[in-house]
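Hey, why these numbers?
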Amino acid sequence: MIPLSDQSWQHQSWQESLSSSLLKVEDLLAYLELDLPPSQWLEKPDFPLFVPRPYLSRIEKGNAKDPLLLQVLPLTSELHDSQEFSKDPLNESSFTPRKGLLHKYRGRVLIIASGTCAINCRYCFRRHFPYQEQQPDRNAWEAIFDYIARQPSISEVILSGGDPLTLNDTRLSWIASELAKIPHISRLRVHSRLPIVIPQRISPSLLDWIEATPLQIVMVIHCNHPNELDEQVALYLQKLRHAGVSLLNQSVLLAGINDSAEVIISLSEKLFEMDVLPYYLHMLDKVSGASHFEVSSNAARKIYQQVIAGLPGYLVPKLVMDRPGTGSKTLILP
């Protein structure tokens, strides 16, 4: 493993950045020059620490309340949940007609393309998801394509995970080409945090298959705080835009991280400078281990009112929540 003080990670491929990610809380705290008492953090959390070097480089040393650090640091707060929090807060297990496929909403389906992430976000609503059971193999992929082909109401396929961009580009190109053979599929939407945490993932081979597919490509990046956006991220997002990708962002409203109108406004402005349109501002999904991130509905509405007042309408993300059994996201009105 590359020593933490070594900056050679800046010249790594995205695969090398993944493989050299931090796995131990002790290493993370040592690098960031933080002396937190062991009573505040989990040495061996059930949902392990996983932080790649490009993201680590944006965390302020010596700042225990850094908003990027708080998204990845396993705290003992994760052990104290209310009864409202569960391992499957969206009841996704009820919407799987095929292995690796979720069909919750009319007109679109979601494929759990990968069980791997580029970073383990502590608020992740799939932190308990049974990826080993749902990870599609070759036969499962064929069954997924067959299911989609038999559902003419479906026009959009969403690749999710995990993070679909942890798959190699040969596999992603194959998925896109198989979907393009289905006449009623016009859009491929990719949800990924990789353009934020390891921007080098936007490789020439990724851009090649994107430019080659007849499908309209929409990429929803997951960015929660303006400090996650640096020059490297901007550079690689522009490569996606030049390849014809429509870029959207969704954030999660998180206590202690972005629960202020000032931060959300700054994030929206900075995203738009990088040709990314703010899309969703999600209320926290009530997943076990994440209750310390919850922002109340009343507090969220007050923040949102200030965001509306501070931004032009096209830069205001929709404040939404996911409710099990509903046909779409639920809008939270100010």
